[in-house]
Amino acid sequence: MDRLPPLRLLTTFEAVSRHGSMQRAAARLNVTQPAVSQALKALEEHVGAPLIDRATRPAQLTEAGELLARAVRDGLGQIAAALEDIRVLSGQGDGQVTVSCTLGMATYWLMPRLPDFYARHPEITVNVQAPATDLPHLSPGIDIAIRYGTGAWREGQTLKLFDERVCPVAAPALLDKLTSGGIGLDRAPLIHVRSPHNQHWAGWEDYFKARGIERGRLSGQTFNNYVQAAQAVLDGRGVMLGWRSIASGAVRDGALGMWPEAEVDLGTSYYVTGTVPLSQTAQTFLDWIKDAGSED
């Protein structure tokens, strides 16, 4: 760490590289142009290489300058992001709420409804995080988690958002072809969503058991997240289990069709869990999302 130059020199250099001139950088930093020039010379002495080609007009970064500029921008950006995370963790992010949910839930249910929240609360920013594990949970920096299951979570305060139902869905053309040709779900091409992290989600095995449908082989295309699988279904590649919360928009728009008389309730729901105590901002979001869930 002793080899690093003072932060003041790096921020001055970053301003020069970003604004393209010492004069504009000086105005931005509220210092004199000679002060900027002196800081650049000090940084070049520390680095041991020229960073600015002063023979050109306007002055341009040298190859070494370009290399350092990229590193400084990335480094300062990471520092700024870390400071923002610290403010959120310490409760200073009064105008923000961070929500964790699955990628499918974020893409097909939450994000289409957020414009309504912003129209009601333009002063609040909603940060949405979809963990790679597909298992949203309350962790440092997360205010609210939206989760699918039976509600057996112990941390925070958990409320039911809405009951979930499932129905096989397919592209309308494929659905018409299968049903008009007398091909039932026992022979239809299937699309699966499977990964080591989403075993808590019901699959085709659970669906067929609930419906009492006998099927010898459950082979078919497999994807590790709902968004990829949904695209394959839209492309007419097969039939997928369509969760009401996620597939209803595409069904309503006519992009997907529901298998006739095939919807079942597997006894699962979506729940929303909030930290205790909730910030006023998070409480505002929680009140809104409960109303949004009651409309489904």
From TrEMBL:
One of the entry's Gene Ontology molecular-function terms is: DNA-binding transcription factor activity
Q: Which domain of life is it from?
A: Bacteria
Entry keyword Transcription regulation: yes
Keywords, A to Z?
A: DNA-binding, Transcription, Transcription regulation
Instruction: Tell me where in this chain the HTH lysR-type domain is found.
Output: 5-62
Q: What GO biological process, any one, is recorded here? A: DNA-templated transcription
Does the keyword DNA-binding feature in the UniProt annotation?
Answer: yes
User: What PROSITE patterns does the database record attribute to this sequence?
Assistant: HTH_LYSR
Give the family per the record.
Belongs to the LysR transcriptional regulatory family.
Q: What is this protein called?
A: LysR family transcriptional regulator
Name its species.
Alloyangia mangrovi
